[in-house]
Specification:
This protein is mainly beta. About 0% of the residues lie in helices and about 55% in strands. It contains no helices and 11 strands. The strands form 2 sheets. Strands 2, 4, 5, 6, 9, 10 and 11 form a 7-stranded mixed beta sheet that branches. The protein has a 4-stranded antiparallel beta sheet with strand order 1-3-8-7, with no helix packed on it. It starts with a strand and ends with a strand. The relative contact order is 0.31.
């Protein structure tokens, strides 16, 4: 199986910074796009940022210029550096990855192909 483990959330004052980490582990043949989504109370889950294996990034308009996404391909790690945080950034942040597992006990990719995987979420709270 594939697991995503997040860390780095917490409470910060407006204008402060936080860094989120997510590591994908398990029976992974390959990881494609990795990214972060967030969900605030009473709102739908929304994309914050994602990054392809080749390094192409995509950001929500609300975080452009403040957040930076990066990844370490050999370690299957994705990071989100969040600067100049605002109260409206308060949400549960979820790591997301598109990954293909090894097929059974072989060294071949699962013929099902890439599937989406989610972390359990980490709380980010911005408040004075």
């Amino acid at each position: 199986q594939v697991q995503l483990k997040e860390s780095g959330g917490g409470l910060v004052q407006p204008g402060g910074s936080l860094r989120l980490f997510c590591e994908a582990s398990g029976s992974i043949f390959s990881v494609n796009t990795m990214g972060w989504y967030r969900q605030a109370p009473g709102k739908q889950r929304e994309l914050v940022a994602n990054i392809t294996r080749e390094g192409t990034t995509n950001y929500a308009d609300s975080v452009k210029g403040r957040f930076t996404i990066s990844r370490d391909n050999p370690k299957n790690i994705v990071r989100l550096q969040m600067n100049n945080l605002k109260a409206e950034d308060t949400a549960v942040y979820f790591c997301h990855a598109e990954a293909v597992k090894y097929y059974r006990e072989s060294y071949l990719p699962d013929p099902v192909g890439y599937r989406p995987y989610w972390g359990q979420g980490t709380q980010v709270s911005v408040s004075s």
